[in-house]
Specification:
Elements: E1 2-7, H1 15-29, E2 33-38, H2 52-55, H3 66-75, E3 78-84, H4 92-100, E4 123-129, H5 141-152, E5 156-162, H6 175-195
Parallel strand pairs: 1-2, 1-3, 3-4, 4-5
Helix pairs in contact: 1-6
Length: 196
Amino acid sequence: MDLVYISGSPRRRGNSNALAQHFLDRCREQGAAVTSYFLNDLKYQGCQACDNCKTIADKCTLDDDLLPVLEHVFAADLVVMASPVYYGDVSAQLKGFIDRTYSYLKPRYIAEKHPNRLVQPKTLVFILVQGHRDPNAFADILPRYSDIFKWTGFAETHPLRVVDVYHRGDIKEQQAAHEQAVKLADKLMAEYNYLH
């Protein structure tokens, strides 16, 4: 399995990355080849609304550090995105990446039965870690982005959300979240191995 991890956190040792590592380590143990991209380390722009990906090319034409990441995600078997919740949304780093996946959509995608260029629907694990302890706060993030992901070809989204994780290192106390990450890794690896 070719697994791509997209980190939207500015902290490599932040809570969202720490939780993601439980999932990634379990997948590695079962044979997945994991490539990690830390968006905060890359130099890239948000979508420029040039529409080159709909007119002169079948992919994004912005020549920056994000281009090979988009290509790798396009080809991967499984994608994991992780972000802290900032101001009621994913981080700016991850939002910039998600906006650039607009290039996965075909021209006239709104009228297309199959609107994206992906050959096969892609499985996505979407990890969100928030400091606010009320689970109803910012609960709209998951359904809102799930609809976008389906559009762009991530037909199956598996959310992994943890609340009340505010200070650096708080995720260590969230044993249930660790177990959930491992269980999800086992499930997705078993499904992949069964099909391949």
